[in-house]
Amino acid sequence: MQRQSISARALSGLTAVALFAGVGCRTVSTPETTAAHASLPPAVAPPVIGKLAGGAPSLDALVDQFLAALADKDLKRLDQLSVSEAEYRDFILPTSVAPGQPLKVFPDQPSKYFWDVMNTKSHYWLSSIVAGYGGRKLTRKQIAYALGVQEYAGYRAYKKLVITVVNENGEEDRLHTGSVAEADRQYKFISYLGKD
Prior knowledge:
Structural class: alpha+beta
Radius of gyration: 17 Å
Number of domains: 1
Distance between the termini: 29 Å
Strand content: 15-25%
Order of helices and strands: HEHHHHEHEEEEEEE
Number of strands: 9
Largest sheet: 4 strands, antiparallel
Shape: globular
């Protein structure tokens, strides 16, 4: 898979270890190499490479939608701004390798475990953001990436967003959120986990 526009939700520390240490996963060729796929044991299916659906058209738009949902305390909308379980397990995990490298295949149980850990931490962090900032009208002033921007095989990750906002009284504050993934001009939060 040669796409170079990737984006971001920060993987949990545990997931990152799995991705880069190869724990609980197998390396396979890209989908075009069918011979390698045929050699996999039946219990480990080749990755189903999906994509992001219903994302924002830009990073600024994603953050603005996030702030609007936060002002409304709209938990359903906040959930929609982040990747789904299928997007995480079928797209983010397999393609979280350097461009040009073989994609990763995760057996179902480890894949599910990594999602559950990341998603649980993300929801706890989001709950604290809603408790502290929900119901307030905040305007985006600046977006920074605490851990920079990184290219992966399937997406570009904007890692650990720090959003400078201005409230109704003109006062500035900073919101620490998780990473964002960009793929095919679609932007979604990978998670809301601002700090590991």
